[in-house]
Structures
1.
Amino acid sequence: MTRATSVANVEATLIPVVPTGWWGGLGNLVRKELGQWWGTRLWWIQLLVWMVILNGVTTVIMLDSGVDAAARFDEALQTFMLVGATAIGIGVVLTVQGAVVGEKELGTAAWVVSKPVSRASFVLAKLIAYTVGFVVTALVGPAVVFAVEAAVLLSLPVSYGSFAIGLGVLALAVFFYIALTLALGTLFTSRGPVAGIGIALLLIGLFFNGMLPQPVVLAMPWLLGDIASAVALGSTLPSNWLVPVIATAVASIAFVFVAVRSFGREEF
Amino acid sequence: MKTKVVQTQSDSATAATTSSDGVIRTSSLSKRYREVDALHGLDLTVPRNSVFGFLGPNGAGKTTAIKLLLGLSRPTGGRATLFGLDSVRDSLAIRARVGYLAQDPRFYPHLTAREVLQFTARFFYKGPAEAVRTRIEETLDLVGLTDKADRPTKGFSGGERQRLGIAQAQVNHPDLLILDEPAAALDPLGRRDVLEVMERLRAHTTIFYSTHILDDVERVSDHVAILDHGRLVVSAPTVDLLGGDTASYELTIRGHEQAVAQVLRAQPWVTGVTEVLQNGLLTLVVSVTDDEAAESRLLRLALASDGVVVTAFKRTQSTLEDVFLQLVRGREQ
C-alpha cells in the first residue's frame, strides 16, 4: 500500500461538521477560549491576584485579636463580598476590554469568522469562557480559601448554603460586567472607550451613588455587594433587594443581545 | 513540501452540489463606503477547477470583492453566489466549503502552527482524532512547516505566516480556495514556493486569488479578471487575453521595406503594421487576426518582393503586463 493510498484510507473516515444555526462553531470556540484561560498562565495569575486582594484583606481582619471571633468572621465575610463586588468588576473590565477589540485590531476576528462559525458563537464563546474563568479564579478559589481560613483561624464554619447564594449574587455582578464589556467591545474599535465606560460605571457606583436618584441606583449592580453580604451573613436584606438583582440580570441579557447583534453587523 | 493532496470522500460529497456553470457568480455586485465606490457592478463568473487570477492595482477593489464573497462584509448592491448559494443568506454553508487566506494572515500568537491547524480543522471535522492528525501532518508537510509545527506563531516571519495561512485555508480540502495576495509579502523563494503549492492544489480545487504581481498570474492562472477603480475591465481565459486578438509577428528586413509593408497591409487578416527602426534595421510588427494565415503566408509574402532580405521572423506573445497596462491606461485616458 503506498503512502498516498494509506493517507486516503485514513482520511476517508473524517467526519464532517455540519454547520447550522447561531451555535455553529460554538464548541470549538469555547474550547479555544477556555484554553486561553487554562492552557496559559492566565488562570494562576488571576487566582493569585484575587487571593491576594480578597483573602489578604480578610486574613488581616481574621487575625485582629482585639475583637471576638464571631465579630471578626462577620466583618471578614462582609468585606469579602463588598470588596469582591467592586474589585472583581474592575478586574473584569480591565481583562475583558481587549477580548473583542483586540481581535478586531489583530485580524484574528476576521480570520475566525471566515470559517464556518456564526458571529453569535464568537461572542458567546467569550462570554462563557470569561464567566467560567472569573467565577472560578476570582470567586470560587478565594471563597474556598476564605472558608478554610475561617475554620482554621476562627474555628467558625461558614454556612455553605448562604455563602454559596452570596457568591451567586456576586457572580451575577461578574456576568454583568463581562456582558457590558463585550458589548462595548463590539461597538467600539479601540480599548479606551471600552475600559473607560466600564470603569466609570463602577466608580460612579462607588463614590456617587448617594447623589443619584434611587431608581437609578436600584437599576444598577452597585447594591449587589450589600445584598451578597446580607445573604451570606443571614442578616436582613436591604429593602427592594430584588430590584437590583432582576435589573442586573435583565441588563446583562440585553448587553449579550447587543453584543451578538452588533458583532453580527460588523464589517471586516 | 512533498505530500500529495488527497481528496476525501466527504470532500467529494460536498463537491457534488457545485454549480456546473461557475463556482462563483456575481451580478452587479457593488460596495459603497460613504462617498467611495469600492466596487461597482461586478459581473464575474469563476469556472470550476480554474486558477482564477483577480488582478488590479492597489485599491482596485479586489479585497473588497473577496470580503463580499465570504460574507465578511455586506454588498450595497447586486449579489454573489458561490456553489449556487447566496453569499449573504447562506454564508455559513458557503464558508464550510471555502478556504480563505487573508492578505496579511494573523493567528493567535500563543498557539503553535499545529494548534492553529487543529483549531481550524475542528470547524470542519468532528474526528476521528487520528484522521484529523494525519490531515494536519499532511498539510504542514505541503507548506513546508513540519519542522516549525510546534513553535508559537508569534515568532513566525511573514513568509512562515503566509505558509501557515495557506495551510489553514486548505486544511479542509475546500471546493474553493480564496487567496488574497498570497505572494505579496514574500521574497522570490517564498513566492516560488507559494506558486508551487497553488499549482499542486489546482487539481483538486478551484483557486480564486487576487494579486498585483503580473508574472505570477501569467505563470499559474488559466483565467484572469482585471479590476480597476472598483470596475471590471476584462475577464477572460489567460490564453485568450494574451494571444487572442493581440497576436503579432516581427519581421526584420533589409531592402524595399515600404513595398513589403504595403503588401502586408493589403491582407485581410492583417490589422496593422508598425515600423520600428532598430540598429539600422527595420522591423515590421504585424498584428494579425488569423494565426494560421500569418504562419503560412506572411514570410512568403515578404520574400516574394524583389530585393528583400528577411533577417529575422518570429511570433511575439503579448505579456500580461502589456495587456494590463494597455487596458488600465486605456481606461485612465
2.
Amino acid sequence: MSTQSLLKQTPLNALHRELGAKMVDFGGWDMPVNYGSQIEEHHAVRRDCGLFDVSHMLPVDFKGAGVRDFLRGLVANNVDKLQTPGKALYSCMLNEAGGVIDDLIIYFMDENWFRIVVNAGTADKDIAWMSAQRDKTAPAIEITPHRDLAMIAVQGPNAAAKLWAALPGSQALTESIKPFNAVVVGQMFIARTGYTGEDGFEIMMPGKAAPFFWQSLVNEGAVSCGLGARDTLRLEAGMNLYGQDMDEMQSPLESGLAWTVDLKSERDFIGKAALQSRDINYQMVGLILQDKGVLRSHQKVFTKHGEGEITSGSFSPTLQQSIALARVPLGIAPGETVEVEIRDKRLAAKVTKYPFVRNGKSLIEGAGS
Amino acid sequence: MTIPADLKYTPSHEWVRVETDGTLTVGITHHAQDLLGDMVFIEAPVAGRTLTKGEECAVVESVKAASDVYAPVAGEVTAANSAVESSPEAINQDAYAAWMFKMKPANAADVNSLLDAAAYQKLVEAEAH
C-alpha cells in the first residue's frame, strides 16, 4: 500500500517527480531529498546556484494596530531592531519555561503588517500558541497562515544572476535588497535570506506560479536541490535545525542562540524570567572528526568536564571531513580535543568555532578547500 | 540491469558472488546504495575475522545515514577491499564491482539458503509498496 496520498504535497510536487527527485516523507510532507547526487547538489550551491522547495514552511501574516507591541512580548529577540520596512529578524519563540517552541524569521513590512515564517513540523502548534497569546493580550490582531503560498529558495554565488535572467525585469527591483531584507514585487515576496551560508533569495509566491518559476531557473542552469543538500549546507553554515539542535526542552542560551535573545532591554517577553533564573551549564561548539567515520546526532561526546551530545552531525562535502554541532559542558574551548562514541569506538574530534563554511570558503584552518 | 542474475542476495540487501574456488565475494546491492545515497565512509571487516550468519560485520555510511552490513553466511573473512574503503563513492558508481569483503564459508552448502535474483527482485518490489 502506498502512503503517498496521506502525505502533504507542495505545488511543486509533480515537477519534482518529473525532474527525477527521490521523494521522502519529511515530517508528513512528500518532499525531494535529492535528484541524484546530494553531494553534487551541495557543491552546486557553494559554487554556482541551487534551488530548494521550502513550501512546507509556513508564512503567517500578523496584521492590525499594535502588532509590534504584541511581538515584543511573543518572541525572544527584540522586534524593535526592525525599523526599516522589509527588514528581517531571526528569533526564537519561547514557552514560559524558556524552552524553544520554534525558531522564526520575522519580516517587518509596516506598522500594521509583520510576516513570520515558521517551520513545517511546528506550524500547527505555533499557530495555536500565537493565537492563544493573541487572544490574551491583543485580540484585535489578525493572524493569517498562508498555505496558498509556495516558497522557493534560490541560493549560491550566482543566485542573483540566475534570478535576474529567469525573471525579466527583476534586476532593478531586487539588486538593492540587502542581506536579511525583503521587498514585495507584485504577488512575489522576495527576501535576501537563506539557510546555506551563501548569497541568495527566498521567494514566496502563489502556489500556481511556482512550477513555471522553478522551471525558468532550471532553464538558466540553476540546479534542483533536495532537503539532503539543504541539511549539509546549513550544518556547514553553522545554522541550527529546530527539533535537533534545540527544542522545547532546551534553552536557547544552551543552544548557541544567545545572540538572538535580547535580555538587555527592559522589555518583557514569554520565557524571559525563566531564562534569567535558569543555570547555564552547556554550550554549543563545532566538532571536526579527526579519524575516519561520520558524526551523527545523539552520539555521546566525552570531555574533561563531563559528557555532551552531538545535536547535528554529517559529512561536510566542502571540508571532506565529518563535522557536527554538539552541546557540551561549559569550559571546553576551541582547539581542544574531545572523544565521540561511534558504535563501539571512541574517536577523536577537534573542538572548533562555527560556522565551518561561509560564501564557498572553509573557515577552518587546515581543512578542505 | 540492477539485479544481476548470476549473484545471490540476502533480505538485508547484500549481494554474494560464489567464486570458482568456493570463496564468496560480498557487497551491497544497487538498491541499497540507491536508498542510502552518496557514500562517504566504509568499514570492512579485517581478514581472519570469523563471522556467524547475520552478524554485523561492516558499516556503510552515506551523507544521510549509517547502515550495517551483515554476514550472508557463517565463515572467515579472507580479504577486505581497501580500495573501496578509500573511495566509498565507488559503491554508488557500480555497486556490483565495488565489493566490500571476501570470505570462505564454513559450509559450502549454506549459500543455497540465499535468495536468487528473482526472489530478491520480488523482495525489492514488495518493499517499494
